[in-house]
Amino acid sequence: MKITHEIKDNTITISLDGELDASSSVLLDEELSNPSIMKYSKILVDCAKLNYISSAGLGVFISHLQRFEDSQIKLIFYNMQEKVKNVFEILGLDLLMTIVSTYDEAMTVANE
Amino acid sequence: MNNSIRISCSKKNLKTIREFVTQYLSQYELSDIVLNQIVLAVDEISANLIIHANQEDASKFMELAIERLNGQLLFEISDNGISFQHSNYKEPDIEEHIRIGKKGGVGIAIVNRIMDKVEFTSRNGRNICRLYKTVF
């Protein structure tokens, strides 16, 4: 799992590259637990190269979502592969989280 | 085709399990989504065995065997760790997990939703989880 980020104004874009399982999700959890992330108002997650997610990966997002919402931070997923989106759908998370198709859509939702 | 694999109880070996299942299933024409779901279900059970039943003790082992039974695939995952108490299992309330920021506890729910039948048995210290999926 490779995690990179890009910062522009009040938006941080996190790109996930690889497989998010019980072993690698610790890295993502560290990234989202870093107090400095709370200074952004938008967190965009680029899932283009995310080839796999298990419950451990979903659990990381589930465990941080409320904290972001309480601080009016928008968490938006985009470029998600169908098979990965399907895993969110199995638990109904697609209805509780914001998942859009493209970067442009993500920016539109972020700026609403 | 080799249909079983034995790995030590380290989370790093989950990738090996996933690759093994993917390789085995490559002989069938499954869609990307179904293939990923099956790999995921086996990964979830394996992760539970490694982390909870065997406390990531790399000196312990778990096994996976895959069989085709008529129109179904059977995944048999076994270990000698602490057995899973299915009777204590409760379906998670995802919205509650979000409210309280809970990280775990949704893996078995995923497996139940993907597989047609999920069985847990324990005998003489050996635990076997059987996952059945109709794909043909």
Automatic annotation (TrEMBL), chain A:
Organism domain of life: Bacteria
PROSITE patterns found in the cross-reference section: STAS
Annotated Pfam families: STAS (PF01740)
Domain STAS, residue spans: 1-110
GO terms assigned for molecular function: anti-sigma factor antagonist activity
Gene3D superfamilies: STAS domain
Classification via CDD domains: STAS_anti-anti-sigma_factors
Classification via NCBIfam families: ant_ant_sig
Family membership: Belongs to the anti-sigma-factor antagonist family.
Listed name of the protein: Anti-sigma factor antagonist
Automatic annotation (TrEMBL), chain B:
InterPro entries: Anti-sigma-factor_SerPK (IPR050267), HATPase_C_sf (IPR036890), HATPase_dom (IPR003594)
Protein's UniProt name: ATP-binding protein
An example Gene Ontology molecular-function term: ATP binding
Presence of the UniProt keyword Cell inner membrane in the record: no
Source organism (scientific name): Adhaeribacter soli
Domain Histidine kinase/HSP90-like ATPase: residue ranges: 11-132
Keywords: ATP-binding, Kinase, Nucleotide-binding, Serine/threonine-protein kinase, Transferase
Domain of life: Bacteria
Pfam families (UniProt xref): HATPase_c_2
